[in-house]
Design brief:
Layout: H1 2-14, H2 41-52, E1 57-63, H3 67-71, E2 75-80, H4 83-96, E3 111-115, H5 120-131, E4 138-140, E5 142-148, E6 152-159
Antiparallel strand pairs: 1-2, 1-4, 2-3, 5-6
Length: 167
C-alpha cells in the first residue's frame, strides 16, 4: 500500500519513534495468531485456501477518531467498508479458537496502525496530520502470514482469489 506507506513515513519523520519500523503499512486481520511452533505447512495451506475463496477487497481510509484511542497513545486509519475484513477475522477466530488481541479490546475495528505508544497530545497531532494526507483507496489482493521469532518476518504470501473483483 504505497499511499499508506507514505503516510507512515511522513508521521515517522515528524514524530520519531511513533511508527513501528521494519514492516510496511499493513492491516492486521488477526493478532496474535498461533504460536510459531504450530504454524506448519498444513496451517499455511489452510490459510491459503481461506484467503483464496475471497476476492480482492477495495477499501478507503479515514482516521479512526475515538478519543480513548488518542488517550491511550494509539492512532489508526479505519477501513471502509470493513464488513468483509470483519467476516474474515471471525472465520479465522472460529477455526482456531482465537480472539483478536486475546480479547483485550473486544471486537476491534479493522485498521491500519499509524502510531503507537505516544503521548495523548502527540496522538491528536498525528491524527490531524494523517487526516490531511489520507492514502488513496486500495485494492487488497493478498494477505501475509507474519511470524515473530525474535524479529517479525514474512512466512507466507496468501493471494486473494485471482481475477476476483474488489468487494
Amino acid at each position: 500500500m504505497p499511499g499508506a506507506d507514505a503516510v507512515l513515513r511522513a508521521v515517522g519523520e515528524r514524530f520519531p519513534g511513533a511508527v513501528r519500523t521494519g514492516f510496511p503499512a499493513h492491516i492486521t486481520v488477526l493478532h496474535p495468531f498461533l504460536p510459531l511452533s504450530d504454524v506448519d505447512d498444513e496451517v499455511v495451506a489452510e490459510l491459503a485456501a481461506t484467503f483464496a475463496r475471497r476476492g480482492p477487497l477495495r477499501v478507503e481510509f479515514a482516521v479512526a477518531d475515538e478519543p480513548r484511542h488518542f488517550d491511550e497513545g494509539f492512532v489508526a486509519l479505519r477501513l471502509e467498508p470493513d464488513g468483509a475484513l470483519r467476516e474474515l477475522t471471525a472465520e479465522l477466530c472460529a477455526r482456531w479458537g482465537l480472539r483478536p488481541y486475546g480479547g483485550a479490546y473486544g471486537e476491534p475495528d479493522p485498521h491500519l496502525t499509524v502510531a503507537l505508544d505516544v503521548a495523548p497530545e502527540q496522538a491528536r497531532l498525528i491524527a490531524e496530520q494523517a487526516a490531511g494526507a489520507l492514502p488513496p483507496p486500495a485494492d487488497l489482493a493478498e494477505a501475509w502470514l507474519v511470524v515473530f521469532d525474535g524479529a517479525w518476518s514474512l512466512r507466507a504470501r496468501l493471494p486473494l482469489a485471482p481475477g476476483g473483483t474488489p468487494q
